[in-house]
Amino acid sequence: MIKYSIIIPSYNEYENLKLLIPELLEVLKDSMHLYEVLIIDRMSKDEETFSLTQSYKIRYIQRVGGDRYGDAVRSGISAAIGRTIIFMDGDGSHNPEEILELSKYSDSYDLVVSSRYLTSSTSENTYLKELGSIFLNKICSVLFKVQCSDFSNSFKAYNGDLLKKVVLHSKDIDIIEEMIYKLIAIKDDVRIHEIPGTFRKRVNYESRRKPFIYFLSYIRTLVRLKLLDK
Description:
This protein is of the alpha/beta class and 230 residues long. It has helices at residues 14-28, 47-55, 69-79, 98-105, 127-144, 160-163, 175-186, 211-228, and strands at residues 4-9, 35-41, 59-62, 84-87, 111-115, 122-123, 156-159, 192-196, 198-199. Helix 1 packs parallel to helix 2.
């Protein structure tokens, strides 16, 4: 029985995935029967990524509805069959070893967070990006009225039954905050646990995100969620 669905959004991530997938499968080798790995790729098939997934016998899903990050998240949630849904990035920034730690707490909590901001956490992000992220997470903590040090890191394990009930609208990376807000909206006593996370320097990576534009999208989403309640 598949208990955990690991969802990895991908868009031209072949060079990273060919390093990440074997590393991830090595971590899971003793418990692979409990896990499924889903690569949520772009709408048009990436033949290199598709061939890679087939060679490792993991699921290859083409996203539905568009090629934005939000479309990948919605497509992954729809396709996942595990009771727990785990999201991680495909660029090598998340340490696969933490999958087992996230899984360990997922039966007892609705949301398990790999946090970059606990005492024993580490991050190789730039100072400017860390400063912006800390500020954003403080805003989320106040608006959502939930104790969580790292809303914006996508590396999380969710109660799959709850997550499949929410309706998500965000188009970009701000969908991460929307998921948490919507979980709280449908369950007042959402149980959250954080583990110390390691945010690694991305490899083979050229950012497609413009920091200022994405910061504005976060703020716009927070306003929409909190003030307009949509």
